[in-house]
Amino acid sequence: MTKKQKSEIFLKNLRVACARKGTSVSAMMRDLKMSTGGPSNWKKGGGLPNGDTLQRIAERLEVTVGELIAGTQEAGAPIDAESDKIASPATSADLASMLLIIREQQADLREANKWLREAFAKEQANTNAAIGEMEAQRLSFDKKWASLPALTQNYQVGAGVESKKGAVATK
């Protein structure tokens, strides 16, 4: 089964599930605060939404993810979109197709996880470098601060005029 065919089955099942709830696909997407262009993109791209999106849609429509993907209900039978009745049991090809979709999504999740770990590691390295730089600046400041009393001991303030100790201040 091609991606395009999977997408068509999913969109058909989505429309049926929305009709059962007395809503449209667009209205349901708005209710979930999702882009109403998603279904159009899935149709054009021949793909399916990611796992989280599938789960949110299924929960909103009170169906299973399996019903949306392959039209299977709890009894394991595809939905007949025309009559909205249970047809023959799901075939092994349907189940294999669902398994393939799940594996593709797992691979996508692994890839996203890898990317996030790399991004986090880079950000952690940048943060550590910034902390090291700030620590060096603090040490430099501490050194200057510590030498300040030694510098001020040589000067006295009198009558609003600074003068060196032992020198006569003149106005």
What topology emerges from the helices and strands here?
Blueprint (H helix, E strand, L loop, with lengths): L2 H18 L4 H7 L6 H8 L5 H11 L3 H6 L8 E2 L4 E2 L5 H61 L2 E4 L2 E4 L7
Antiparallel strand pairs: 1-2, 3-4
Characterization of this structure:
Helix 1 packs antiparallel against helix 3. The chain has helices at 3-20, 25-31, 38-45, 51-61, 65-70, 92-152, and strands spanning 79-80, 85-86, 155-158, 161-164. The chain has 6 helices and 4 strands. 65% of the residues lie in helices and 7% in strands. Residues 73-88 have low confidence and may be disordered. It has a two-stranded antiparallel sheet with strand order 1-2. Strands 3-4 form a two-stranded antiparallel sheet. It is mostly helical and 171 residues long.
**Binned strand content:** 5-15%
Name the average pLDDT: 76
- Cα separation of the termini: 99 Å
Strand order of the largest sheet: 1-2
Rg over alpha carbons: 34 Å
Unreliable spans are 73-88
Q: How many beta-strand runs?
A: 4
Level-2 CATH architecture of the largest domain: Orthogonal Bundle
